[in-house]
Amino acid sequence: MAHTGFDVEQVAAVVRRIAPAAALLVLVAAVLLGAAAGARAVSRSAPDLHRAEATTVAGAPLRAPDENALVSQVPVQAVWLAPDGTGRLGPVSVAPGTPAGRTVPLWVDAAGRPVPPPVTGTSDAVVVGALTALLGGATIAAAVLLTAAAGARQRSRRLAAEWAAAEPLWSGRRITDGADAPGAERRRRGRRAP
């Protein structure tokens, strides 16, 4: 039996072939969108903060005052440049035992005063990246499953039509008008030859 019309099975095969590439594109998009969201979160939370390099002018003590702290830091005098280029001197937090002359990273405000580092934006990056990956993956999975189901339905209908045409020939049942009506077989068997 010749098939005419739209072939969903071919569409399902194409969707199955391009699904891995689409998944890879979704992962790349998730990483890029997550990185952009993280950068946006950082710039939004600290538009006036600047990163500077401070150089210690004295060595730090070998022991921290609070040895039970999760991250032990001690204050030590250091010099750095403010955003306007002027030199600054003041205390910065460093690890115990940091020698004089060591360069340490420092965040400063527009006036050149040390401030806590800005938020990293990691949570925004993870949320946006994860949602992009989940929604993209769900879309790809839905496309694969729906086209496969539609292809299976089309294949089943085609097989039923082909079987309806082949079964009478295979079983020996003659195809006549009314042959498929209920009781038609009984009527044929009950007739006597003339």
Descriptive labels:
alpha+beta, about 190 residues, five-stranded antiparallel β-sheet, single chain
What's this entry about, in short?
The protein has 194 residues and is α+β, with helices and mostly antiparallel strands.
Secondary structure topology:
Layout: H1 8-45, E1 50-56, E2 74-81, E3 87-94, E4 103-108, E5 114-115, H2 122-171, H3 184-190
Antiparallel strand pairs: 1-2, 1-4, 2-3, 4-5
Descriptive report:
The chain has 194 residues and is of the alpha+beta class. It has a five-stranded antiparallel beta sheet with strand order 3-2-1-4-5, with no helix packed on it. Strand 4 (103-108) and strand 5 (114-115) form a beta hairpin. The longest helix is centred in the C-terminal third of the chain and has 50 residues, at 122-171. Helix 1 packs antiparallel against helix 2 (122-171). It is 49% helix and 16% strand.
